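pasting for ref
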Amino acid sequence: MGTITTRAAVCRGPQQWWDVVDLRLESPRAHEVRIKFMAAGLCRSDEHVRTGLTPVRYPIVGGHEGAGIVESVGPGVTRVAPGDDVVCSSLPVCGRCHYCSTGHQNLCDDGPDTRTGHLPDGSFRFHDGTEDVGALCGLGTFSRYAVVPETSCIRLGEDIPFEVAALIGCGVPTGWGSSVYCAGVSAGDTVVIFGAGGVGSNAVQGARQAGARHVVVVDPVAFKREKALTFGATHVFETAGNARTAVLRMTQGRGADHAIVVVGVLDEQVLNQATSIVGKLGQVTITSGGSRDHLLGVNTGALVGYQQCLQGVRFGGCNPLRDIPRLLDLYRGGELMVDELITTRYGLDDINQGYRDLLEGKNIRGVVIHEH
């Protein structure tokens, strides 16, 4: 072990594009792991960091979806060993706090500090000269190497491609779990999914696997609507108005059982469209981030009078230590489409083009392939 140099994509402030530079990376300390990342997903959440919609401490190495090989470990590490193939959960799981011990690992108490970019002991491992550089979610998968908490590591089988494993670290469980766990979709339900990107496509897969009769997707991008059909959507629409007309027809006027909102940025218009498309006892599940902290503007009369439910979701309600291996098994068995999520592969130097492609609706999921 020892300090090494690594190539990484750093955001230095709101509205600044990713700066690909060499950083100094320290050795792992107690309960930390140094990983040689092989692949990283280009998630919309990192774009929110770049634009400033998600407040973080800058400068910060981006990336919270990643898989690679354990290069070295610090004292006390027991979950993984050097040479192990691993996927990193975008949320750490301590296994000891109240939420972990009650089956809510997605709300682990180790999670709230993920925007500061420091490790659990409050210090940093990335350095640019004399400046400390954070790591998004304590990971920083937009770096060839990174030091991460042991609590973020889950061992992989050697049969799983790194680019597949990277997406199962965040986008796949977030979308899949939004349907299966948080919405609680069941056989015969009518489900409307707003947004068919990397997370929305997995919400479609989750709803289909849960037995929904109608899986309706609303997305303005034709390419994403076409892809949604391959993931299990039964109907796709460009506008919420057209979707609502069709849903009322297919449910004899009752409305949908569930609306799941996974658009890139939540706003009041989409929120109102979602609440208006569900019927009595309908449930609206929100996975998207908001355009500002305080956002509601819904018809509370319908919410109360129709006994509807409005709920937020973190990590799809999944427990990383249980559900990441479960999703990997579904992939192995051909029951979960992950390869098909990957639209374009990029080198790290092309990361800004990857995000331009995301913003232009060209990708379901872009993936950075670090040089081997």
